[in-house]
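WARN no homologs supplied; continuing
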Amino acid sequence: MVGYIIAGIKTVSDTRIGDTITLDGNPIAKPLPGFKEVKPVVFSSIYPLLRTITSPFAEALEKYKLNDAALVYQKDSSAALGQGFRCGFLGLLHLEIVQERLEREFDQSIILTVPSVQYRFTLTNEETVTVDNPTHYP
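OK structure emitted
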């Protein structure tokens, strides 16, 4: 069946593709199967070229996320580059597409750090640590 609903959702990031919608008075025990959470595999930080313009950059990134649910980001900061965002991508092609679209469609001049992947370390005390940012290596 195809239809639509009207919800009082304030931000799009509160929902994800594949969310199960139920009645408040008659909820289901678990979500419907079939949709999996997007797992980024390539990570890079994105910073605005001009340090003083972080608000328009954050707004552009939020608007871009409306069209690309696979983009994952969180705030990040660097002593050399200032305030920015640590982003997760599906691959290098996805990273290049995000970069191009932010520059062309949202008129943002950005700097990207060198892409990296997640590393899993097993420490001497048998503890396993997963790291996606080289600055957090043990």
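The chain has a mean pLDDT of 86.
OK
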